[in-house]
Amino acid sequence: MGKLKNTPDNADALSLAPRTLMITAAVVLVIVLGIVPWYAGARQDPRIGDDFRLAHDLRDDYWGYRHAARKVCERYPAVFIGDSVIWGMYVDNANTLTSLLNRRLGREAFGNLAIDGLHPVAMETLVRYCGNAIRGREVYLYWNPLWMNTPLYDLSGDKEFSINHPRLLPQFDRRIKSYRASLDDRVGAFLDRHIAYRGFLHHCRTAFLDNEDFKTRLAKHPAENPLKQCSFTFDPGEKKKNANSRVTWKQAGIPKQDWPFVAMDKSRQFRSFRAVIRELESRGNRVRVVLGTLNPHMQTPESLARYRKLRAEVAAELARSRVECIDLPELANEEYADASHPLAEGYRTLADFMLKNLTNVKDKKL
Fold this sequence. Notes:
Layout: H1 8-43, E1 45-46, H2 62-75, E2 78-81, H3 84-87, H4 97-105, E3 110-112, H5 120-130, E4 138-143, H6 151-154, H7 183-194, H8 196-208, H9 214-220, E5 233-234, H10 268-282, E6 286-291, H11 301-320, E7 324-327, H12 344-357
Parallel strand pairs: 1-5, 2-3, 2-4, 4-6, 6-7
Helix pairs in contact: 1-8, 4-12, 5-10, 7-8
């Protein structure tokens, strides 16, 4: 066979091959990174049942949270955003603060968009990137002073610390010295936030594949098509029948605490909390801060004095900024499960207090 002559036509054909390959690769990337997650997002149909709160096992499924938040906002005119105190750590679905408020009002007024462990720094990222549906609503934003009780919890300390929701941290903020993830982990978390396809894959693994990736699933179940396990319809609500705990902090043997607390003007968590308020207000939400309490019975006199001083300063600062606040009362000794979580009776006390202090609970638009 003779050699291929380098004629002009053959040269053009050869030169087109790399160009065609690049165009094909670009089209595939657009489909995979853009069209697939867009189509999947448009078809997402999370089921939001009565007494809804996000399943604890889906606490880091931020793609799922984005779509659950949309459905919750469609169903409820007002939403609560916060950590495990609002989520309801020691109670069942029917005894969270939002469920009790709805039951006392006789209608669905308040939706629960809290996540266990959602500190303000993580909340800032969650609201900005996964809470776009929270618009034109009454938003009750829970402030938990526990996140400012020590430099470690405040994320202003120097020691390495196991931080809740690390994928929601600002990955390249070197001021958070307690976060010491590898560069690969930081880049991965950053890409998860900005490339919808990665968040969609994580959602599939978390919601349908027992937290296993497709490769691991195929290795364990070679005869199974993992894609068939995935669905546009999913139930993100907590389904575990948690019993209401009756164990108080004293019965649990928790010792008294002497917390130093971080000054408001030096607090990393409070700076993010203020950023969350601004972000929500910029979307036309009416934000009301719910000032939470720490168990006063569980603190030394010195700690209690520092805590109450900080709490008063936060309330005054928010008032100067014209942010509405609901100042929750301290609960009885037997109504606390630990430092910040109420037992069922404590939630009933808080629900009764809030109903007396909400000025427009009779407004049908609420």
